[in-house]
Amino acid sequence: MMDRSGGRRALGALFTLVIATVSPSGAQVPAVDTALILAIDVSNSVDDARYGLQMEGVARALEDAEVIAAISGGGMGSILLTIVAWSDRAEVALPWQIIASAEDGRKAAQSVRGLPQRRGEYTCVARMMWFVNNVVIPTAPA
């Protein structure tokens, strides 16, 4: 894509944020304030450097003291987090996890940094949204 000056403008990878509110009632999962679904484009347009930048950004956010304070400062003091990697198909890259403390954030960040890149031919937002609605949200711990 060209900017007004005719030079190439770098396009950021599409990073979709889907928020669903859940109130798990199961004995092994405490109630949370929010279920956070990070849906990350991993199509062939996302090279290794861009993929690394995306994952490192998520990991650093999970380690950030202000982010953890916001998470733990909610009414329930925790969130559920999952990551969906998507391109022409979608899949859960990081299963649902509870984040309620700095330690939880560090563990999740470590997992995020270890996620292998899953490539796909093209990006299909409709398939990703179908997957989130029909597969990911129904599997949120409840």
Give a structural overview.
This protein is of the alpha+beta class and 142 residues long. Helix 1 (48-63) runs antiparallel to helix 3 (102-113). It has helices at 48-63, 65-72, 102-113, 125-136, and strands at 15-20, 34-41, 79-86, 90-99. It is built from four helices and four strands, in the order ββααββαα. 34% of the residues lie in helices and 23% in strands. Residues 1-27 have low confidence and may be disordered. The longest helix has 16 residues, at 48-63. The protein has a single domain (15-137), classed as Rossmann fold (3-Layer(aba) Sandwich), CATH 3.40.50.410. Strands 1-2-3-4 form a four-stranded mixed sheet. Strand 3 and strand 4 form a beta hairpin. The radius of gyration is 16 Å and the shape is globular.
Give keywords.
4 strands; 142 residues; 4-stranded mixed β-sheet; disordered N terminus; alpha+beta; Rossmann fold; globular
Q: What Rg, in angstroms, do the CA atoms define?
A: 16 Å
Helix content: 25-40%
Distance between the first and last residues' Cα: 44 Å
Average pLDDT metric: 83
Per the principal axes of the C-alpha atoms, what is the gross shape?
globular
Number of helices: 4
Tally the structural domains: 1
Reading the helices and strands in chain order gives EEHHEEHH
Low-pLDDT stretches are: 1-27
Give me the CATH architecture, please: 3-Layer(aba) Sandwich
CATH third-level topology: Rossmann fold
Biggest sheet statistics = 4 strands, mixed
Strand content: 15-25%
CATH hierarchy class name: Alpha Beta
- Class of secondary structure makeup: alpha+beta
Q: What's the CATH H-level homologous superfamily?
A: von Willebrand factor, type A domain
Strand order of the largest sheet: 1-2-3-4
Instruction: Please tally the β strands and state the result.
Output: 4
